Amino acid sequence: MPGPVDSIIWFLGIALSLVVVVCSLWRKTFRRYFFLNLYMLLSVLVSLVRLRIFAHYGQSSTQYWYFYFYSDALMTIAQYFALISLYIHVFQEMRVEKYLRLGAVLLLGGTALFSYAVVSQSANRMLTDVVFELSQNLYFVGLVLTYVLWGAIFKMRETRALLVQLVLSLGVYFGANAASYAISNLRPDMFSHLRYLIPLIGCFLPFAWAYAFWRVPEEARLEPARLAVIPPAVQR
User: Fold this and answer.
1) Global pTM?
2) Domain-wise residue ranges, the chain
3) For residues 135 and 153, which has the higher predicted lDDT (pLDDT)?
């Protein structure tokens, strides 16, 4: 059975993800930010299944680790498309949606092929290794794309406070996950020390998005001069 700390973090993440969806429905932005809400709902489903497998088989079981890595890859792909949907919001006036979608699919496919090529060089390659490499690479790609998007927001003087908050939160989240994967690669012996840190990082994004949908009106605007120094949480 999971310990008390594991259970608290798990249920906190599930509750925060549901709060995001509820706040989005309440603010009537669910359809506008559909892929963000879809990711939150998928997060709830995956967390519940992980908790079930964890409780039944234990954290060190093959069943848990197989599901963990496969579901993590699925979640990372969902995050990736949530990010692309934010690109579409930022560039909606330029009417380049179809080009962004095509570029996103090509980039995803290229990342998957690159991940497989890296793993195929190993004599002991396994499908789980491909999945791990794909998740790691997508976190890095997501981090780069998020800060490219932030640069576009700054350049285009985008002032929609809610959109800015969502992008910044996703950038911090991608960065934290990319760092955790880098640490696990450089220092595999430290992976056990990240047992609680990684789930806590997972709670950050739904917390930040829940705050954004709850506290930041969609019509709220920022002063263009403040975009360069905007804090992670939009002030009242």
Assistant:
1) 0.81
2) 4-229
3) 153
